[in-house]
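Archive entry. Fields below.
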Amino acid sequence: MPLDILLVEDNPINRRLTQVLLEKGGHRVVLAHNGPSALEILASRTVDLVLMDIQMPGMDGLEATRTIRTRERGTAAHVPIVALTAHALARDRARCLAAGMDDYLVKPVNSAELMGTIQRLGLQSTPADTTAAADIIVLDRKTLLDRVNGDLDLLGEIADQFLREHGSLMMRARTALHANDPEALDYALHTMRGMFGALAADSARAVTEQLQSLAEAGDRDEVAATFTVLERQVGALCTQLAGFAHAAAA
Ligand code: MN
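PREDICTED_STRUCTURE:
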Protein backbone atom coordinates (compact mmCIF):
# COMPACT_ATOMS: atom_id res chain seq x y z
CA MET A 1 0.00 0.00 0.00
CA PRO A 2 1.58 3.28 -1.04
CA LEU A 3 2.00 5.86 1.70
CA ASP A 4 1.87 9.64 1.38
CA ILE A 5 5.14 10.82 2.88
CA LEU A 6 6.15 14.39 3.59
CA LEU A 7 9.91 14.75 3.27
CA VAL A 8 11.29 17.87 4.97
CA GLU A 9 14.94 18.35 4.05
CA ASP A 10 16.92 21.47 3.15
CA ASN A 11 19.87 19.66 1.55
CA PRO A 12 19.08 19.20 -2.17
CA ILE A 13 21.11 16.03 -2.65
CA ASN A 14 19.77 14.30 0.45
CA ARG A 15 16.28 15.42 -0.51
CA ARG A 16 16.53 13.98 -3.99
CA LEU A 17 18.19 10.76 -2.82
CA THR A 18 15.60 10.10 -0.12
CA GLN A 19 12.75 11.01 -2.45
CA VAL A 20 13.88 8.52 -5.07
CA LEU A 21 14.39 5.75 -2.50
CA LEU A 22 10.87 6.31 -1.14
CA GLU A 23 9.34 6.42 -4.61
CA LYS A 24 11.13 3.23 -5.55
CA GLY A 25 9.56 1.69 -2.46
CA GLY A 26 6.22 2.54 -4.04
CA HIS A 27 5.41 5.61 -1.96
CA ARG A 28 4.21 9.09 -2.89
CA VAL A 29 6.44 11.90 -1.71
CA VAL A 30 5.58 15.50 -0.92
CA LEU A 31 8.63 17.73 -0.59
CA ALA A 32 9.28 20.63 1.77
CA HIS A 33 12.58 22.52 1.84
CA ASN A 34 12.14 23.95 5.34
CA GLY A 35 10.10 23.84 8.54
CA PRO A 36 7.59 26.61 7.75
CA SER A 37 6.64 25.13 4.37
CA ALA A 38 6.21 21.71 6.03
CA LEU A 39 3.79 23.27 8.52
CA GLU A 40 1.93 24.94 5.70
CA ILE A 41 1.56 21.65 3.82
CA LEU A 42 0.36 19.83 6.93
CA ALA A 43 -2.22 22.55 7.60
CA SER A 44 -3.90 21.79 4.28
CA ARG A 45 -3.57 18.02 3.92
CA THR A 46 -2.82 14.84 5.84
CA VAL A 47 0.08 12.50 5.22
CA ASP A 48 0.90 9.03 6.55
CA LEU A 49 4.42 9.86 7.62
CA VAL A 50 6.76 12.83 8.01
CA LEU A 51 10.51 12.47 7.53
CA MET A 52 11.98 15.53 9.21
CA ASP A 53 15.52 16.80 8.88
CA ILE A 54 16.75 18.19 12.20
CA GLN A 55 19.25 20.82 11.12
CA MET A 56 17.67 23.42 8.84
CA PRO A 57 18.16 27.19 8.73
CA GLY A 58 15.49 29.22 10.47
CA MET A 59 13.06 26.78 12.04
CA ASP A 60 14.81 23.49 12.75
CA GLY A 61 13.18 20.06 12.69
CA LEU A 62 12.72 19.92 16.45
CA GLU A 63 10.82 23.20 16.51
CA ALA A 64 8.70 22.19 13.50
CA THR A 65 7.87 18.91 15.26
CA ARG A 66 6.91 20.65 18.49
CA THR A 67 4.58 22.90 16.49
CA ILE A 68 2.97 19.91 14.76
CA ARG A 69 2.41 18.19 18.12
CA THR A 70 0.96 21.38 19.61
CA ARG A 71 -1.52 21.60 16.75
CA GLU A 72 -2.51 17.96 17.30
CA ARG A 73 -3.24 18.52 20.97
CA GLY A 74 -6.89 17.89 21.80
CA THR A 75 -7.43 15.90 18.60
CA ALA A 76 -7.02 12.19 17.85
CA ALA A 77 -4.37 12.97 15.23
CA HIS A 78 -0.77 11.85 15.60
CA VAL A 79 1.22 11.84 12.39
CA PRO A 80 4.32 9.65 12.73
CA ILE A 81 7.43 11.82 12.52
CA VAL A 82 10.87 10.32 11.93
CA ALA A 83 13.95 12.47 12.46
CA LEU A 84 16.66 12.61 9.80
CA THR A 85 19.83 13.64 11.55
CA ALA A 86 23.54 13.80 10.93
CA HIS A 87 24.31 12.71 14.50
CA ALA A 88 24.12 9.23 15.99
CA LEU A 89 24.59 10.35 19.58
CA ALA A 90 22.19 9.13 22.26
CA ARG A 91 21.47 12.67 23.43
CA ASP A 92 20.38 13.67 19.91
CA ARG A 93 18.01 10.74 19.86
CA ALA A 94 16.65 11.84 23.24
CA ARG A 95 16.13 15.40 21.96
CA CYS A 96 14.19 14.09 18.96
CA LEU A 97 11.93 11.93 21.11
CA ALA A 98 11.44 14.77 23.61
CA ALA A 99 10.31 17.04 20.74
CA GLY A 100 7.60 14.51 19.89
CA MET A 101 9.25 12.45 17.19
CA ASP A 102 8.52 8.75 16.91
CA ASP A 103 11.75 7.44 15.49
CA TYR A 104 15.14 8.47 14.31
CA LEU A 105 17.33 7.81 11.27
CA VAL A 106 20.97 8.80 10.88
CA LYS A 107 21.90 10.23 7.49
CA PRO A 108 22.78 9.18 4.93
CA VAL A 109 19.88 6.76 5.02
CA ASN A 110 19.63 3.79 2.72
CA SER A 111 16.61 2.06 1.28
CA ALA A 112 16.62 -0.83 3.78
CA GLU A 113 16.68 1.55 6.77
CA LEU A 114 13.85 3.65 5.37
CA MET A 115 11.65 0.67 4.60
CA GLY A 116 12.55 -0.95 7.93
CA THR A 117 11.45 2.17 9.79
CA ILE A 118 8.19 2.31 7.87
CA GLN A 119 7.49 -1.29 8.85
CA ARG A 120 8.55 -0.76 12.46
CA LEU A 121 6.08 2.10 12.77
CA GLY A 122 3.37 -0.32 11.63
CA LEU A 123 2.67 1.72 8.49
CA GLN A 124 3.34 -1.14 6.11
CA SER A 125 3.25 -4.85 6.82
CA THR A 126 4.55 -6.24 3.55
CA PRO A 127 8.28 -6.11 2.97
CA ALA A 128 9.11 -3.34 0.57
CA ASP A 129 10.78 -3.94 -2.76
CA THR A 130 14.41 -3.15 -2.17
CA THR A 131 15.79 -5.20 -5.03
CA ALA A 132 17.01 -3.51 -8.22
CA ALA A 133 20.62 -3.12 -7.05
CA ALA A 134 23.00 -6.08 -6.81
CA ASP A 135 24.93 -6.95 -9.91
CA ILE A 136 26.18 -3.56 -11.15
CA ILE A 137 29.66 -2.67 -9.94
CA VAL A 138 31.18 0.69 -10.82
CA LEU A 139 34.88 0.63 -10.01
CA ASP A 140 35.36 0.28 -6.26
CA ARG A 141 32.46 2.53 -5.38
CA LYS A 142 30.25 -0.16 -3.94
CA THR A 143 29.06 1.95 -1.01
CA LEU A 144 28.03 4.79 -3.26
CA LEU A 145 26.23 2.44 -5.59
CA ASP A 146 24.47 0.71 -2.67
CA ARG A 147 23.31 4.08 -1.51
CA VAL A 148 21.50 4.74 -4.79
CA ASN A 149 20.18 1.18 -4.89
CA GLY A 150 22.31 0.42 -7.93
CA ASP A 151 20.59 3.11 -9.95
CA LEU A 152 23.20 4.49 -12.34
CA ASP A 153 20.92 7.23 -13.60
CA LEU A 154 20.39 8.47 -10.07
CA LEU A 155 24.10 8.21 -9.41
CA GLY A 156 24.75 10.33 -12.49
CA GLU A 157 22.12 12.80 -11.39
CA ILE A 158 23.50 13.35 -7.90
CA ALA A 159 27.05 13.45 -9.25
CA ASP A 160 25.92 16.17 -11.67
CA GLN A 161 24.18 18.03 -8.88
CA PHE A 162 27.32 18.00 -6.77
CA LEU A 163 29.43 19.12 -9.72
CA ARG A 164 27.05 22.03 -10.28
CA GLU A 165 26.73 23.09 -6.63
CA HIS A 166 30.07 22.48 -4.97
CA GLY A 167 31.58 25.69 -6.38
CA SER A 168 29.02 28.03 -4.86
CA LEU A 169 29.02 26.11 -1.58
CA MET A 170 32.79 26.27 -1.25
CA MET A 171 32.58 29.95 -2.14
CA ARG A 172 29.99 30.50 0.58
CA ALA A 173 32.19 28.69 3.11
CA ARG A 174 35.27 30.65 2.04
CA THR A 175 33.41 33.97 2.23
CA ALA A 176 32.10 33.12 5.70
CA LEU A 177 35.59 32.11 6.76
CA HIS A 178 37.07 35.42 5.64
CA ALA A 179 34.17 37.44 7.04
CA ASN A 180 34.56 35.63 10.37
CA ASP A 181 30.91 34.60 10.30
CA PRO A 182 30.83 31.33 12.27
CA GLU A 183 27.13 30.72 11.75
CA ALA A 184 27.29 31.03 7.96
CA LEU A 185 30.47 28.94 7.91
CA ASP A 186 28.87 26.19 9.99
CA TYR A 187 25.81 26.09 7.76
CA ALA A 188 27.87 25.90 4.55
CA LEU A 189 29.98 23.12 6.09
CA HIS A 190 26.87 21.34 7.33
CA THR A 191 25.45 21.37 3.80
CA MET A 192 28.71 20.11 2.32
CA ARG A 193 28.95 17.38 4.92
CA GLY A 194 25.45 16.24 4.04
CA MET A 195 26.42 16.04 0.39
CA PHE A 196 29.63 14.15 1.14
CA GLY A 197 27.62 11.75 3.27
CA ALA A 198 25.15 11.15 0.48
CA LEU A 199 28.01 10.57 -1.94
CA ALA A 200 29.84 8.19 0.41
CA ALA A 201 32.83 10.56 0.21
CA ASP A 202 34.00 9.59 3.68
CA SER A 203 37.35 11.37 3.81
CA ALA A 204 35.89 14.69 2.62
CA ARG A 205 33.14 14.23 5.16
CA ALA A 206 35.68 13.63 7.93
CA VAL A 207 37.64 16.76 6.98
CA THR A 208 34.43 18.79 6.99
CA GLU A 209 33.54 17.48 10.45
CA GLN A 210 37.01 18.41 11.63
CA LEU A 211 36.54 21.90 10.17
CA GLN A 212 33.26 22.30 12.02
CA SER A 213 34.92 21.34 15.31
CA LEU A 214 37.84 23.68 14.71
CA ALA A 215 35.51 26.52 13.76
CA GLU A 216 33.45 25.88 16.87
CA ALA A 217 36.63 26.03 18.95
CA GLY A 218 37.45 29.35 17.28
CA ASP A 219 40.82 28.20 15.95
CA ARG A 220 40.95 30.36 12.82
CA ASP A 221 44.49 29.43 11.74
CA GLU A 222 43.73 25.72 11.93
CA VAL A 223 40.45 26.29 10.12
CA ALA A 224 42.20 28.11 7.28
CA ALA A 225 44.82 25.35 6.98
CA THR A 226 42.25 22.58 7.07
CA PHE A 227 40.11 24.41 4.56
CA THR A 228 42.83 24.01 1.94
CA VAL A 229 42.79 20.26 2.67
CA LEU A 230 39.06 20.28 2.00
CA GLU A 231 39.56 22.19 -1.25
CA ARG A 232 41.99 19.52 -2.46
CA GLN A 233 39.58 16.76 -1.47
CA VAL A 234 36.72 18.44 -3.28
CA GLY A 235 38.89 18.76 -6.38
CA ALA A 236 39.69 15.04 -6.29
CA LEU A 237 36.07 14.18 -5.64
CA CYS A 238 34.95 16.23 -8.65
CA THR A 239 37.34 14.33 -10.89
CA GLN A 240 35.96 11.01 -9.68
CA LEU A 241 32.34 12.09 -9.87
CA ALA A 242 32.79 13.45 -13.37
CA GLY A 243 33.89 9.92 -14.25
CA PHE A 244 30.77 8.45 -12.65
CA ALA A 245 28.48 10.96 -14.29
CA HIS A 246 30.07 10.09 -17.61
CA ALA A 247 29.78 6.33 -16.98
CA ALA A 248 26.13 6.73 -16.00
CA ALA A 249 25.38 8.72 -19.14
CA ALA A 250 27.08 6.16 -21.37
MN1 MN B 1 19.82 20.00 7.05
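CURATOR_NOTE: The chain is about 60% helix and 10% strand.
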